[in-house]
Amino acid sequence: MHSSPNDASHQGNSAPLKRAMSTRHLVMISLGGAIGTGLFLGSGEVIAQTGPVGAIISYFLGGIIAYMVMLCLGELAVHMPESGSFGAYASKYIGPGTGYTMTWLYWLTWSVTLGTEFTAAALLMQEWFPDSSMWLWTLIFGAFVFTLNMISTKWFAESEFWLALIKVVTVVAFILLGLLAIFGVLGYQGQETAPLFGNLTAQGWFPEGLFPIFATMLIVNFAFSGTELIGVAAGETKDPAKNVPKAINTAIFRLLIFFVGTIVVVTCLLPHQEAGLSAEGVSSSPFVTVFQHIGIPYAEDVIRFVIITALLSAANSGLFAASRMMWSLSYNKQLPAVFSKVNARGIPYVAVIVTMIGGMPGLLSEQFAPETIFKNLLGIAAFTMVVVWMSICLSQFNFRRQWYKAGHTKEELGFAAPLYPLVPILGFIFCFITCVSMVFDAEMLPGFIGCMIFIVACYVSYYTIYHKKQ
């Protein structure tokens, strides 16, 4: 597979990346990033903590926040489609130090997420092969995802499309079969009819009170994270002005239907205390319990297979996103030039290799408690993600202010977020509240402090090292 000489000739340092993705790829990449641990494992936690109606409200709110952030991102991405997008927008519309920090934070989010995805996938493989080693599976999965990312952007997009499709089909089947059971078309646990919607309010509307709805927002926002991959991929997309807004609308509405639909089915069919994750791992995922009650054979194996593909597809997108962030830091001369080297197929291979090393904390989990590592990594990934979302809202707010000051109109934009300035302001405030909620969770506090130190270190390094050079 040879590329034409014009895009291979100035490879020595930093060639631009190729535009090889269509809407179909963009939508699936963002769904693939979003349907992962957050839905299959996190949703049960949220239901157990907030009760059924609370969980539906949580996910609905989460979807609206994500949608507001994506509208802001859409406007920026169509105006300036660049790989490593939010960092570039934050540099331009907030300040270069913030842009640099956001790019690093987003890199941290995904390299940490790689660790969580590989750890979780290895734990699941251990349920099938109890005597096998976590190390072995982590390395096998790492090698698989690494290879998919190294072949070519087109291969990456295509593999992500099919991996994500498996998850999407499972979720749709789950919702349809669940609804059939709810309305008594299918038998449920040997009964003629399922409990219908009785479980929703069996313990009152908000059995745990209203506070958990806000306390669980971090898990919920993390479940929607990945949608912003549309912005990262915009730089490698054909005709961004047409494809990006289309992909944003499609992705968010599908996610809302998937998440809220899933929660409705789970909460109708299971008492909310049974929805949370217990120590048994995946066998206690609400998906498995419901499929077993409906009487689907091998429910546990099927769901385990789907969750493993889900985790690998999220890792696949994550490695793609994080390596593009490193590439953009290097392209903007904020990292040594070696990180923006691309090979003949247009892949920033040094960045991909270095980011893979970020997935290594997953290997520690055999020596330490995997659950503790998992929860802390999840907290760090969710927190850094929400901070990046805040920067997207602020960038769009400032961008539009400058746009009007320069005498332009809203109509001149390729895609304009509606209801300015409400959308960026509300998006920012909700994300901020979510970040603060981490302080109240004792288990997540170490992660929160770690993130704060990382952010300060980024700013310090920017202003001491790079600022002096300019």
TrEMBL record:
It is found in: Membrane. This is Amino acid transporter. Pfam families: AA_permease. It comes from the Bacteria. Keywords: Membrane, Transmembrane, Transmembrane helix, Transport. The chain crosses the membrane at residues 26-44, 56-78, 134-152, 164-189, 209-230, 251-272, 302-322, 342-364, 376-399, 419-440, 446-465. One of its GO terms (cellular component) is membrane. PROSITE patterns: AMINO_ACID_PERMEASE_1 (PS00218). It is a multi-pass membrane protein. Residues 25-445 form the Amino acid permease/ SLC12A domain. GO terms for biological process: amino acid transport; transmembrane transport. It comes from Acinetobacter equi.
